[in-house]
Structure formats: C-alpha cells, structure tokens
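Field reference: sequence -> structure
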Amino acid sequence: MKYTREPLQLHNPLEFWMNFPGAERVFWVDRQSDRVVVGAERLATVRDEEDRQNYEYVFYGETFFETVRDEKWQGLGDEMVAFRHYYIVENGESFYLHAEEAKTIERFDIPDVRHDYHESSDDFEDWQQLFGAIQRDIKSGHVKKVVGSREAEFTCDTEFNVPSMLNKLVDNNPGCFIFAYEKDGRTFLGASPEILVRHRGKEILSYALAGTAPKEGEDRRTADELLHDPKNLFEHGIVTDAIVDNMKEITSKITVGETGIMELKHLYHLRTTITAEDDTLSLVEWGKRLHPTPAMGGEPRERALQILKDHERHERGMYAAPFGFMKDMGDGILVVGIRSALVIGPKLYAYAGCGIVEQSNVNEEYRETRNKMKTIVEAL
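Structure field:
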C-alpha cells in the first residue's frame, strides 16, 4: 500500500485525533524517545507478518485472555490494524501519511475539563476474596506469585472527555507510554511505564518491572528502602528469572542489566532491563511468548492464570495486555496496557493490579492498587 507523505507540524498530536470524531483511531506518545503515532480510519486488518510489510505503520493490541465474555470488551483487541491516516513525529520530523485521499487537517484547542464524577463501585470484599484464594494456593505450594487486579467504576454527570484526559496523561507521566484506542464508542487509554518487548534490528529488549513502593501515605518508603526490601526483591526476582528463562529457549545471547529504581509521580518500581540478540522471531511472536510475564500474571504462569480466571470477578479485556506499534521493516515496541481505563460515554472503568506473594498484606496491596489508579483519576 502506497502512502503519501506531507509535512505537518501540529502544536499537539491530539489535534490530529480530534479531526476524526467517531472514527476508529489510535494514539501513541512514547515519552522515552519522543515518538508520536496517531492513526485514524481503519484501512485494513493485517493478516500476518508478510501482509504487515505492505503498510508503513501497524497497530497491534491483544486482550489479556484469549476469550472475552464481558460485552463492553467485545470486538476490542486481538488484531493488527493498518490505518488510512497517520500523524507521525520521529527523528526530529513530523508529517502526515495518508493512503488514498488526504483530509484537510484542522487546528484545535485541546479541551481542559475538570469532570464532576464519583466512584460508583465498592470492590473491597471482592478483593479480599481474591486475595484469600491466591494466598491459599501460595501456601499450598501451587504458585509463588499471582498478580491480582481490580476494576473500579466511575460515573460522570456528562460524557468523559477523552482528549482532555489524554492531554493530562501526557503532561503528568514523563517517562511513560501514553496510549489510546477508540472503536465503536469505547476508548481504552492509559500511561504505561512497562515495555513488554522492543524489537530493534536484532536487539530484543524487555523490562522486568515488579516491586513497588508508594512515595506518600502510610506505606511510603524511600527508593533505597525499596531497593533493599526482601519481599519486593523476591517478587522482582521471579519476574526477571521468568523472562530470562523464556528468552533462553530462543537465544543464548542475553544480557541482564543491574536492578535499579524507576521513579514515577506517586510510586517507585524496581526495574531490570533485559536484552537479547535474535533475528528469528517477529515483535508479535516475541510478545506472544513473553505475555503475560509474572509481572502481569504470576508464576508458574498457567496455574496463576487459572486462579485469575476462577476468582477475578471482572473482565480484564485489554488491561495488562500487549499494546503497540510496528514499522514496515518489523521494528517496534509493545508495552503492557497498565495504569489504564476503558471509557464509554459517562462511564469509566479503571484497572490496577499488584503482585501477591506469601508475605503480602491484603490492606497494603489494596492501597497499592489505589495508588496506581491515581494515574487515571488525576487525568479526570
């Protein structure tokens, strides 16, 4: 498919998003490398890796589990999509790519909305039941770690304003990947700090991101305290070891970086960067191999996932699943869709999770999920 490229300089990439109201569209801002991709109007559903090479950029998103039961998630994810229109910012350039006819791109002021909302759900009892089920399996020796998650529902007097939320997510979360995918009146959006896999030539990179400490509140800790905390180091080690073992099945050329601190607005995380050399698998194939790491599912993987299927009351949908972009030569990046929410008119469903190990405390872990949800709440 031949795209036409035209120079285009926008003050804010959300201006491009706002030129396509109601269309299927995707938004991606990589704060780590200052790359922007905004796509609008589905051109094609990409069949496979060979077909992918026909398009300059393609979006890929999965659901956490292979099957989806909840109606609000139906038809979202588990496909690769090429769009008719793209706004791209990379390598110091910004331009408009379009297949077929161009659209006149109008300029917009980005709305700044303070939503009048309230939390319309109370899930602490559900959380206690999930936590108890996970602890029983840990104590019986079936699992070492399971990542439980929550869904919190928020209701607004008017429809939630997605451009306003995205603009705040970009401003509030340096170092993160800001994303959104809209289809059929539903928008999945968030600000993820976590790379599942990056494919750049022969280099494959993944983050082990596990172990968390709040920067404020009754559970607050310093970065140094987190870096030396046995419970969090144990949890982090499970994730690092699992990613390395997975990579070893494909390549022996693996480098494990030093474990350090990733600092976000409200939290510290333990992070280890893992790189490998491989030219046999595509970005999507690597994503399917690694997802879900024990940072999103648990260890052992299959047992942990079965516990979540049996005991989590909500549908994860695209939460904590791979989400990202590829270029025509195959390079690209997939993050995990965390610090995220699904927006449907005046309803918003926010998602957050945390790793549960034997030493975990039910109240402390619940407070951790509330801290993680601040990413979404502060964008309202």
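Note: The first strand starts at residue 4 and ends at 7.
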